[in-house]
């Protein structure tokens, strides 16, 4: 029974690792990490807009790691546009930090898949020459989760400390200046957080698999030895 229980835990851990890698891939490919509201400050200042009139100058913006879009509201109606981060916009951002976020997530995908493979090997007990057993699986999950945390933390630093949204909103805006009124982390950002949480759950499952449960033994009946048995 304990062997079957451990196999079930490792099979569940392998599934979680695979799902974690899928979540990261989906998050990287979707342009909805951040959304926000942007105010066309130049247009509002030109007409000296008051509070009720400011609605005509408030647009929207959304972006991910590779692309995004915005709606410019400068008093003449909304104008939609889409943009890509690479190759031109990234030069105006904190290039090193943005590339590091992408690299951290790519490494996290790699370690998630490694964890997936090692969980399967532990579940079916295939011999192999590498770091094996619960300690090895814990290592790969810890590395995968750690790199996801680094990516999420770096993205938050880019948004809050390096004013990423404002830089993107004002990219190639020679006439109008935009001010950020509101910022909100969207689903793709939280997918990465969920992926890191999944690896924390894996660590818990592996810890449970290391518990040694007592084996259930059937009680044997005592044999009655007679004098005749001893003679024969």
From TrEMBL:
UniProt keyword annotation of Transmembrane present: yes
Cell compartment(s), UniProt: Membrane
Record GO cellular component, one term: stereocilium bundle
TM segment ranges: 9-29, 97-124, 136-159, 188-211
Keywords from the UniProt entry: Membrane, Transmembrane, Transmembrane helix
One GO biological process term: sensory perception of sound
Broad class of where this protein is predominantly found: membrane
Topology versus the membrane: Multi-pass membrane protein
Domain of life from the UniProt record: Eukaryota
Keyword presence, Signal: no
Family, as annotated: Belongs to the clarin family.
Protein name from the UniProt record: Clarin 2
Organism this protein belongs to: Aquila chrysaetos chrysaetos
């Amino acid at each position: 029974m304990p062997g079957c229980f451990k196999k079930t835990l490792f099979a569940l851990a392998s599934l979680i690792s695979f799902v974690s890698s899928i979540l990261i891939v989906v998050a990287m490919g979707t342009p909805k990490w951040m959304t926000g509201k942007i105010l066309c400050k130049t247009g509002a200042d030109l007409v000296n807009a008051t509070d009720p009139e400011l609605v005509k100058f408030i647009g929207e913006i959304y972006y991910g790691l590779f692309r995004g879009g915005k709606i410019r509201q400068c008093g003449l109606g909304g104008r939609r546009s889409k943009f890509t981060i690479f190759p031109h916009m990234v030069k105006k951002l904190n290039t090193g930090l943005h590339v590091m976020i992408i690299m951290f997530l790519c490494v996290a995908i790699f370690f998630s898949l490694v964890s997936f493979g090692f969980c399967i090997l532990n579940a079916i007990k295939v011999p192999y020459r590498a770091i094996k057993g619960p300690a090895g699986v814990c290592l790969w999950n810890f590395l995968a989760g750690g790199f996801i945390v680094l990516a999420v933390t770096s993205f938050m630093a880019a948004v809050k400390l390096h004013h990423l949204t404002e830089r993107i909103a004002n990219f190639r805006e020679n006439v109008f200046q935009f001010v950020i009124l509101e910022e909100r982390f969207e689903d793709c950002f939280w997918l990465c957080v969920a992926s890191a949480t999944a690896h924390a759950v894996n660590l818990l499952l592996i810890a449970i698999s290391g518990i040694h449960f007592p084996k259930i033994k059937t009680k044997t009946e005592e044999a009655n030895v007679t004098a005749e048995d001893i003679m024969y």
